[in-house]
Amino acid sequence: MHKQWAEAEQRYAGVVEQYPETIAAPEAVYWRGVSHYKATNDHTVLGEVTAELARKYARSEWALKASVWAH
Mean pLDDT, consecutive 10-residue segments, the chain of 71 residues? Predict the structure, then answer.
């Protein structure tokens, strides 16, 4: 809501780093990527998010949601 994308990206990255085996991790990967995209308008990160989710959390709903970004 406040468009503090860089801060949001850092917080989501912290969740991914500290809790990689939890149910929250795939969602954090997804939103970390969205935050980066919003901050930079660099759409290539979305494909990277898709690949990371497919590699690490293939069975998560977040991998499915991100699959539309696959190249």
Answer: 92 97 97 97 95 96 95 72
